[in-house]
Amino acid sequence: MALSENQKKSIEATIKTCLRNKFLNYKPESNHMPFHFRLLGKDRMALYSFIQSINTTFGSSIFEPVAVALAESRFMRAESQYVVGNSINQGYQAEIQRIMNDLSLGEDPNKLGEIESILAAKIDEKENRLMTVKVDLFVEAYDGSIFLFDLKTAKPNISNFKDFKQTLLLWAGIALTQNPNAKVNSLIAIPYNPYNPEPYQRWTMKGMLDLKHELKVAEEFWDFLGGDGAYNDLLDCFERAGIELRPEVDQHFAKCKNSY
Question: Domain spans of the chain?
Fold first, then answer.
């Protein structure tokens, strides 16, 4: 199901608001780079600096609010930077560590089985305090299922996959501490496929992540939030927003150039 015209307008408005906020809060670096300036020109360096700044914060400043706006059309509730909690059942935490140890030794990941073993590990009501844990995107379905997404860059560092997995299990453990009956799903989301038209290189995550239950890439992610066809409609929304904002972008670049 493609997005309705009202949904498209809402998404485009969100994109434009996010970028305009970036304009307001962006402070260009004033580093003196004489070789770069002579070779490439101050105008190009200003453009490069701004694009680098957007890339650095694209997830939190654009993808997260757009994801919320998209999910609100199909889910009961959607929030970015959602607080999962700050404590975990002691038995759950110990079981998560056991799971991580087994995965490190070559056991195949099985998220559904891991959730079952975490729940079975509850010995008493004792909880361990943690620093307050937030997730990038929280989505609650009408059947009560909750989805906790960690939005990653298009090419996450392979060396961090173990940390990613532990984070997903920890989120699940915290949510289950609050409600052992919760239908909790914790996943990695990658907003686009940098290898397109080739398939995303999922093999790089195999061994730590249960690819069926812990990873959504590009169309899988956006269509999950907004329904079939949402990804392509979303790309069109970004294009239309970009065309409308182009004069403002050019004006902003002109200001940035003068700061070098």
Answer: 1-74+227-260, 77-217
